[in-house]
Write a structure and sequence with these properties.
The protein is α/β, with parallel strands linked by helices and about 625 residues long. It has three domains: about 260 residues, P-loop containing nucleotide triphosphate hydrolases (Rossmann fold, 3-Layer(aba) Sandwich), CATH 3.40.50.300; about 160 residues, no CATH class; about 110 residues, Orthogonal Bundle (Arc Repressor Mutant, subunit A). The chain contains 19 helices and 19 strands. A twelve-stranded mixed sheet has the order 2-1-12-11-10-3-9-8-4-7-5-6. It has a three-stranded antiparallel sheet with strand order 15-16-17. β15 and β16 form a beta hairpin.
Length: about 625
C-alpha cells in the first residue's frame, strides 16, 4: 500500500465561493477519505459520478482499498485500467454472487486489499439486491473491527437506503451504523445522491466532507441553504458540469472547485449517435474467482441436496398417504362385508317373534320360512334381527338395506360410492356356519323354497347361500336373490315396496292417525308423508339432517360427528346414504351435501299436480321442521 497521504482530485475554480488562486490544485487527505463520512450530490449530468470515479481512480492508483456499490452498472469502466473484481448477478460480471458470498467478499477486501465493484443493478429482484448489500455491509463492519484496515465503502443513490421520509430498512440501518461507528474501526462511507432533500439529514450533517454539484430543484437548494447559507443556495444553481462547492472539516473555508475528468471509460455517459465500443477490460486473478466459485458450487450443491431431500420427502409422504388410504379402504370394505353378510342373513332368515336365533335355526330340527303376513310391522330405516326385534340402522351398512319392506337396490350404488370400487369386490368367506338340522318345509306361495341349510332357491334355479359360505358369488347373483326376497316380502300378489308403503298409515306428531296416501293426494297429506319419512329416520340420521339445515353444505364425516357419531367413514356414509336416497339432501359437489327438504316438498307437490303459494310452502316446511326434524 502506498504511503501517499493525499490525493489530488480537482483545481480551484473562479466565481462566487472561489478561494485562493484560480487553477490551484485541490487535494484530499487519504485517511479522512478512507475512514470518514462523505457526501457527494448534484443533479443528473452535473458530474457527481465523475467526481466519485476520480476519487476512486486516485485511491486505486495508490493501492488503497475500496468497495463501490454500483446501482446503475456504470463503474465497470474502471476495469479498463485497474484489476478490480466486478461481482454481481449477470454474465458481464467476473463472478455471480449471492448473500452467501458476503463474508468471502469482505475477507478479500480487507485481508487481501482487493478492490471490488458490487454491481447490484444486475439483480432482477430488488429484495435480493438489498439482501446482498446488507450482508456485505454487515460482513465488512464485523471484519473491520478485527482488521483495523482503512477502507472506503462508496454507495451510489444512497437515498434509496436511508431516505429522509419513510422507514429505513435493515440495509439502511446497517449503512447508518457504519457511518456512526465505522470510523473507529477504519471503515469509512461516502454516499452519493442526486436528491439531497431525499437523504436522511442525520447522515448529511454527520459527514466530514461534502461536495455540492449543480442543483436546481427548490427542495434541494433549501438543503444547501440550511447547511451552507442562502448565498450558496443561489450560486449552486449556476455551477458548470464537474464544478462544485467543497466543504470539509479540515479546511476553514468552502472551496469552489472543478473536478478532473476521470481517466477510465465513462460507462455512465449518456449514449450518443456514434457507435458504442466497449473497452478492453482487465481480468482479475483466476484464484480470486475460483475461491468465490467454490462458494457458488457449494451453495448449488446444498440447494441440490435440499431439493433432492424435499422430493424424497414428498415421495415418502405420498406413499404414506397412499398406504393410509389403502388401509382405511381395506378396513371399510372389511366392515361393510361383515355388515352386508349379517344383513343378508337377517333378511333371508326373516323375523320370528319370540324365538332366539339358535331356536329359529334348531327349533324342531327345522328351519321355517318367515311368515310375511303375520310378521312385525316393517318401518322405514329398520330391519329385523334373529330375535324378532327391529334393528337400529346405527349398525352402519345394514341401514342401506332397510328401506321400506325389503332390500334397497340403491345400496349397491351407495357401497360403490363409499368404497370407490365394485361393491362385491373383496368379500370373503364368513365364519358363521349353519347349525340347522332336520328336514325343510317349503313355502310355495311364490315358488321359492326354504331349505335346511339356509339356501334360497328362486324359480329359475338361482341360489345364494345365506349362511355366509358363498365366497365367490357375483353381484348379479346377489341382486337376483335380493329381488326374490323383495318380491316375497311385498306379498304374494307381487305389489312393489312403494305400493306397500302407500297402504301404510301415517301417524302425525300429535298421535292423530291420518288417512293413507291413496285416499287423498292433497297438500296436507304430502306434508304428513314427508313428516313420516323424517320421523322414521334413526336419531343419528335425523340429527345429521338437522346439521345440514343449520350449517349448509358439509361433508358426511362432519355431519356424522356433529350428530354424536365418531366420524367413521363407513358409518357416516351409511347414514348419509339414507338421507341422499330419500332426497332429503343432495350432493353439492366435491364431497359436500346440502339440505334439500324444501325442494323435496315442492317436487312432491308438483309430482301430484298440487300447486301452493310460496308463503304456504314456507309454512309447510316450517311445520315439517318443527314437528318432525326437531321433534
Amino acid at each position: 500500500m502506498s504511503e501517499t497521504e493525499q490525493i489530488t482530485v480537482a483545481e480551484r475554480s473562479p466565481g462566487f465561493g472561489g478561494a485562493g488562486e484560480t487553477g490551484t490544485e485541490v487535494s484530499l487527505p487519504v485517511v479522512e477519505l478512507l475512514t470518514g463520512r462523505g457526501f457527494v450530490t448534484g443533479k443528473s449530468g452535473s458530474g457527481k459520478s465523475n467526481s466519485a470515479s476520480v476519487v476512486a481512480e486516485k485511491l486505486l492508483d495508490n493501492g488503497f482499498g475500496l468497495l463501490i456499490v454500483d446501482i446503475d452498472g456504470e463503474y465497470y469502466g474502471l476495469k479498463e485500467e485497474y484489476e478490480i473484481l466486478h461481482a454481481g448477478a449477470d454474465e458481464e460480471c467476473d463472478i455471480q454472487i449471492s448473500a452467501d458470498h458476503a463474508e468471502k467478499l469482505a475477507s478479500l477486501a480487507l485481508e487481501q486489499n482487493v478492490p471490488i465493484i458490487l454491481d447490484i443493478s444486475s439483480y432482477l429482484d430488488e429484495s435480493e439486491a438489498e439482501a446482498v448489500l446488507t450482508a456485505v455491509a454487515r460482513s465488512l463492519f464485523a471484519k473491520a473491527k478485527k482488521q483495523k484496515q482503512p477502507f472506503l465503502l462508496l454507495v451510489e443513490e444512497v437515498h434509496e437506503y436511508i431516505p429522509e421520509n419513510g422507514s429505513v430498512g435493515e440495509c439502511g440501518r446497517m449503512l447508518i451504523k457504519i457511518g456512526k461507528r465505522g470510523r473507529k474501526h477504519g471503515l469509512g462511507i461516502c454516499g452519493i445522491s442526486q436528491r439531497p432533500a431525499d437523504v436522511k439529514k442525520d447522515f448529511i450533517t454527520q459527514c466530514d466532507w461534502l461536495l455540492w454539484h449543480r442543483l436546481t430543484w427548490n427542495n434541494d437548494t433549501k438543503v444547501v441553504g440550511r447547511i451552507l447559507d442562502n448565498d450558496y443556495a443561489d450560486a449552486v444553481e449556476d455551477l458548470d458540469d464537474g464544478e462544485g462547492f467543497l466543504m470539509t472539516d479540515w479546511a476553514e473555508t468552502i472551496q469552489r472547485v472543478q473536478f478532473f475528468r476521470k481517466q477510465t471509460f465513462d460507462a455512465g455517459a449518456t449514449p450518443g449517435l456514434e457507435d458504442f465500443e466497449r473497452p478492453e477490460l482487465k481480468s482479475v486473478s483466476d484464484d480470486l474467482v475460483s475461491e468465490l466459485e467454490d462458494i457458488s458450487d457449494e451453495k448449488q450443491q446444498r440447494e441440490n441436496e435440499i431439493q433432492e431431500l424435499r422430493e424424497e420427502l414428498d415421495r415418502k409422504n405420498s406413499r404414506i398417504a397412499e398406504l393410509e388410504r389403502e388401509l382405511q379402504d381395506a378396513r371399510d370394505l372389511s366392515r361393510m362385508a361383515e355388515q352386508f353378510v349379517d344383513s343378508l342373513v337377517e333378511e333371508v332368515n326373516g323375523a320370528q317373534p319370540g324365538r332366539t336365533e339358535r331356536e329359529r335355526r334348531r327349533g324342531n330340527g327345522k328351519t321355517t320360512a318367515p311368515d310375511l303376513d303375520s310378521g312385525p310391522e316393517l318401518k322405514p330405516d329398520t330391519t329385523t334381527n334373529g330375535d324378532g326385534a327391529a334393528a337400529d340402522d346405527d349398525g352402519g351398512f345394514g341401514e342401506a338395506f332397510a328401506e321400506g319392506n325389503g332390500f334397497d337396490d340403491d345400496a349397491f350404488e351407495g357401497l360403490a360410492e363409499s368404497a370407490d370400487e365394485d361393491p362385491m369386490a373383496g368379500f370373503g368367506e364368513s365364519n358363521e356356519e349353519s347349525e340347522s338340522e332336520g328336514e325343510s318345509e317349503g313355502h310355495e306361495d311364490d315358488g321359492t323354497a326354504w331349505t335346511t341349510d339356509g339356501e334360497v332357491a328362486s324359480a329359475d334355479g338361482g341360489a345364494v347361500a345365506a349362511n355366509g359360505a358363498a365366497s365367490e358369488f357375483s353381484a348379479d347373483a346377489v341382486l337376483e336373490a335380493l329381488n326374490s326376497v323383495t318380491e316375497m316380502a311385498s306379498g304374494s300378489d307381487g305389489e312393489s315396496q312403494n305400493a306397500v308403503r302407500r297402504d301404510t298409515q301415517f301417524i302425525d306428531a300429535d298421535g292423530t292417525e291420518q288417512t293413507s296416501a291413496t285416499e287423498s293426494e292433497d297438500a296436507e297429506l304430502v306434508v304428513r308423508e314427508l313428516k313420516a319419512d323424517i320421523s322414521g329416520l334413526a336419531t343419528k340420521t335425523r340429527k345429521m339432517l338437522e346439521f345440514y339445515r343449520e350449517t349448509g353444505p358439509e361433508t358426511p364425516l362432519n355431519a356424522h360427528f356433529s350428530a354424536g357419531g365418531d366420524g367413521t367413514r363407513t358409518d357416516a356414509y351409511a347414514h348419509n346414504r339414507r338421507l341422499r336416497t330419500t332426497g332429503l339432501i343432495q350432493h353439492a359437489g366435491r364431497g359436500y351435501y346440502e339440505y334439500h327438504v324444501p325442494e323435496l316438498l315442492e317436487q312432491r307437490l308438483a309430482d301430484r299436480d298440487i300447486a301452493v303459494e310460496d308463503t304456504t310452502l314456507e309454512e309447510y316446511v316450517a311445520d315439517i321442521e318443527d314437528s318432525a326434524l326437531q321433534g
